[in-house]
């Protein structure tokens, strides 16, 4: 016997129905839903037609089908638009990332050779200003990291999968490209080139420590070691997409934490040099002292790189209405930056305590080799150098991925088909050897931490604040509005000052800086 109650009572409809909106979907099946609250509850949605009034004249079986359809649409995020090119590119080809992958990638991108030169900045800043500047920079970049994670899906129906895309949405199509393309490409390509130099030089030192007096009379030259390291990078770069290098990022994260800890522990465990001093280095003129301080602050800023990869990392994660991508991304980023702090602060403080203003321009690893190469067991030195090599190999992959993505985006947009294996391999071989030749032509690039920090500082410290104001549009003259505008313009001012300090440091030293200077 059928239920005598009105048919509308058989339908469970929430008192305040959820508003649903369109989104973009890639052929890989991942979606980026529109955040709730953007439209009023009276706006049309793909399930708004499934209402009690609409269902009342329909029989019970049909009602069940439509109700199930409504639940399904609300679960997966509703109507979508296909973007076939996303499924062909390395960054968005795979969308099965998670919080663990986010932690691996962020940690691999956030800790590296730049941490080893932090004690050099302390030699010019001293204890108080060194620790203060490092703490402020860490908190500042953590805030801008949170901004980028939130802006990934800030505009309804779209995911900003790349830093340049978000810059275009905030600043406009042309201005966004001009402002963001150069620093992000320079940061990625410049870091890749510096990694080749550091990796090759570290491989040479590893060979010298392991082989010792038994080395042959004709060892490989430094340029030949660069070539060996570049060849290894090219082999590893054949992994197809960003998610596929999660294992390499895990290796890079573990090796970075390990060698950072080993370097400062070995340094503080040895006897300090007798002439050590903790007073900031004295320079002949006030202008020279000012430029040196600016260069030192640029080194601190360069220690916090990696924001140019935040959106790309988040793009590898699935996103639905109920499970947006920013949740696992922020969870993984918090874990990563906890370990980044555990690496950077001990290296900076422990290195300056161990060597003071005697710190060589190459950083703490150079100081460890110069002062304690005969007192530390060869096995520990060799292991430290080997870990640095592994970390450089892993970091090269994640910092090169945006360049690979750009190459393939240009190819697919012209041919309207995905890259074949041979085309993809050709792009990566070309990129690897171009980076090698740049490194050979500019062998001092690995020492330009201050200049690199100044030129790329807006990517981390300035642009995210401007993007938040322009996209989220907080109330004018509110605290949020003032806070982000002030931080953004401070970041631009610091970028100019640190770049000038970095250029002065290069000119003053006659381009003679080297990351490693074995005696």
Architecture overview:
- The chain is mostly helical and 519 residues long.
- The protein has a single domain, classed as Amino acid/polyamine transporter I (Up-down Bundle), CATH 1.20.1740.
- It is 63% helix and 2% strand.
- It is built from 16 helices and three strands.
- It has helices at 52-55, 60-76, 99-110, 118-151, 163-171, 173-211, 222-236, 246-269, 286-302, 310-314, 326-355, 364-372, 378-415, 421-441, 449-472, 479-508, and strands spanning 23-25, 31-32, 80-82.
- Strands 2-1-3 form a three-stranded mixed β-sheet, with no helix packed on it.
- Strand 1 and strand 2 form a beta hairpin.
- The chain is globular, with a radius of gyration of 26 Å.
- The model is unreliable at 1-56, 74-82 and 510-519 (pLDDT under 50).
- Residues 96-506 form the Amino acid transporter transmembrane domain.
- One of its GO terms (cellular component) is membrane.
Describe the structure using short key phrases.
mainly alpha, Amino acid/polyamine transporter I, three-stranded mixed sheet, 16 helices, 63% helix, globular
**End-to-end C-alpha gap:** 96 Å
CATH topology: Amino acid/polyamine transporter I
Q: Give the uncertain stretches in residue-range form.
A: 1-56, 74-82, 510-519
Nearest-angstrom radius of gyration? 26 Å
How many domains? The number is 1
Contiguous helical run count: 16
Question: How many β-strands, per DSSP?
Answer: 3
- As an assembly, this protein is single chain
The main sheet comes to: 3 strands, mixed
Overall shape: it is globular
Strand order of the largest sheet: 2-1-3
- In the CATH hierarchy, what is the class? Mainly Alpha
| pLDDT averaged over residues | 80
What helical percentage do the residues reach?
A: 55-70%
Strand content: under 5%
